[in-house]
Design brief:
Layout (H helix, E strand, L loop, with lengths): L1 H15 L7 H26 L11 H6 L14
Length: 80
């Protein structure tokens, strides 16, 4: 999830700094990306507040997400 968050934050930065950021479509894109970032941040906060969860995400989120022993596999958004 941390990798997704970073990817969406970069995408938001690109959209905000784009020439089309002030157009209706650009504003809609920025709002959609911001909403997605908020969702991911909430999911990260929920995962960290669960009893027995780790305080910090693993350094390599892609290998942790695919590893059956870490328990993070259920937190992947397959629609992203």
């Amino acid at each position: 999830m941390q990798a997704q968050l970073e990817r969406f934050q970069k995408q938001l930065s690109d959209c905000v700094n784009c020439a089309s950021a002030k157009t209706p479509q650009g504003k809609a894109d920025i709002q959609a990306i911001s909403a997605r970032i908020s969702q991911i941040e909430q999911r990260i906060a929920q995962a960290q507040s669960r009893p027995g969860s780790q305080a910090a995400p693993p350094p390599d989120a892609t290998s942790a997400a695919s590893s059956p022993t870490t328990g993070y596999g259920g937190l992947i958004d397959v629609f992203a």
